[in-house]
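Suppose you are handed a protein chain with no further information: no name, no annotation, nothing but its sequence. What can you learn? This example shows the usual starting point.
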Amino acid sequence: MNTRLYWTIKKFFQKIVFDTKRLIYVLKEKFSKQCKLLHIQFDILKVVLWQIFLAIVFVLLLKKCDALLLSYLKLDSISLDMFKDITIGGMGIAGVILGLYCANISSIFSAKYSNVPSDLATLYQRDVITNSCINQIIRYIVVCSIFLFECVFKQPLGMASIIVLLFLTVQMVITFSVTGNRSYMLSDTFSVGDAKFQNLYNIIKKVSKRNIFTTDQSFQNHYKKIASHDVYILFEIGQYNANIPKNQNESMGLFMNKSVALLEFYWDKKQNIQYDSLCFEKKAQYPQWHATDDTEIRLALQTGTSIQPKMVTDNYWFENALLKVNQECLNKILRDDDILVLQQYFVCLQSLTLIAGEKRQCDYWGSVLKKIKISSWTVICKHLSSDDLDKENALSIVDIMCSNYVELILGITRYLSNLNVESVLHQCTTYSSFDQCDIQYVPYLNGEMCKRLFTQISAELSIENKKLTANWYIQQIVAKEIYQYIGIVIGTIEFSIKEVYEIGIQLNTENHCQAAATALSHVFEILNKSKRAILLIEKILIQLENKHIEKSILWQKVSTDSLVQTIQKIETNLPAVLIKCSVSDALDHWKNREDYPDFLGLCYNHVSEALIRSIESNDFERFKKIYRGYFDLVLLYQEYIRTDVIKHKEAYLAEIVFHVASAPFFEYALISGLAIIWGEFNGASCWKDSIDTTLKEFIKKDSKNLSILSVIAQQLQFRQHDIVGIGNRDILQTNWKQRIAHVMSSSPSFEVIYDHFSERLKTASKILQSYRGITIMNHHVDLTNPEDVFMIVSVNNYLPDEKKYKSCWGWSENYES
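A reasonable first move is to predict its three-dimensional structure. Written in structure tokens, the prediction is:
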């Protein structure tokens, strides 16, 4: 053992054993790696075999075409050398294209997708358009390989083969351009979500069809899981891009708009989805002890456990999930202070708002609009305080924000206009089972109560072979569902009015006068739309209440009283606030008024109309509150008009310029005169006292104000001799007089005294007895020059004799005497 030969031999054998073990280890490692890559190789082999199969089928069809062309058209076969050159050239181009694609796709992946979540990386790798284009290029290479194989065996090739080969070559080149363009689009990480948006569109289409699949709960749950996963991926995209540079926010805005478009499509289809479908999410709802029945409370006390939660259907999980995606993006835009993208987002929301009103989603969408307003308010107000272009964008957002609520009311009005209660209730009586119910036409049937009702009717038919439930009872159940929704509509309308009004008030409080005037100008519009909706609602409520035959079944009272009171309150308080902010805005933009909306003119005309309406409705308190600031508004507006029209220096326009410039003074006297006439007609001296008090306070402010009254008297005196034809506001002024005259004619206090062949008003008022502007024909009042009443009764008290106003009918002398 101690010999040298022994150790040499032993070392030799040990080396052989070691080398053998190392070889075995290396082979095992390689085999292990190959096993790990086996599934990839198998996928590649599967793709290759499939492409070869398709190529062989394709080439066999071409061979048939070639045979037909060679035999019937007597065409010669193509030179194989030339065909071989074309094929090899095409394969070379395809190889270069694949190489360029791999380099392009790798650079984009390393730059944009190296650190993205795995779901987003998978989306990028499995992009449908890109993979389809690559498969076409691969198929082209396989087809070319088969053509070369045919050339080797000297197989004849005809015209069809060369034409198809050239077509495939051109197609392959164009395919690369499409692939390159798609790769460029995918460099924007928002674009990878396009596939998920398309998938969600397809899911919504499927689940909204009432067929054998979508009514199956397994399929419903399957669709819901896919939709939930897709929306989560969209949320991941928004989260991943939370720190992109500000100059890329426009792409984020487009991504948000896609969510809004998807939501619009969903609401169009949602009413076709059954209310208890598993497409909707189930969530736990924890009941309160005070609202739980005694059985559950006793059981909970005996077992020492809490009251068990109940699983309820969340019908708005999809909307909430999509809007959560948008809120994540919106937070980023607000952090970046990007007012332009924010404006674009509000514009996009406007179309969805109209759909929300039409598709019975108004209450949900109203709360969403408020949340978006609250989250954006700080940024909007910040830019309203600036003097750059961003201020214009912020003003635009305020305008669009208020318009959204107007659109919501408009959508509700359209829905109410199309709601034929009698037709809907009659249609419900024709169904004998819940499966027959057309929930798209009658969405009110899509609920637990109606499902239970029609299930019972179906059982009646199965057992008794006839329907026992009376039609009036079916109509009452459905009418109750409509009645409850009308209550929601009324609440949404009231909420929308308050929101627009509060936006204006808040902006006015924060001294953003132009923005406040913008918001408050929409209040008139939304009030007008709401009154139209109220008329429709009251008509529908009467029809529904007539269907409430079984009084033991209680209906929660639905009424428009609260809404009407809110409208009246806002109409009373609005003019004072609007006057303040519109006056301030007019003074700020006095010199460049053409570049901004005429809020002062809007304010003046709406306040004048509000005064006329308060006289019509005999609402003295409202008139008094509005009239208090009316004269100051008239003075400013008259100067506003005067400085504008005096630019016209042409002599032939002098009378027209005067007529337009003096119109505010004339209308102030006209409205004041109508108020005095109305008060005297009703024996209510408070109307005249209020006007006199306001005029007296105006004189007390400054003794120089007497000269203003003199100017007004002088201009109105001159207007009596005005020879201008029909002016730009004459019809409007005539309408005011006719409206008050009509109210007087319709009043219970209206009495006529017949004097030979004439009629005159019976009144104890000395003013009306002296005033010669009241003409009565066939028990209808006609008022002429009511401005004379105000000027003679009120204004003349402050003017010297030589400047006193004189009526055109000469009755002022008789009254003064």
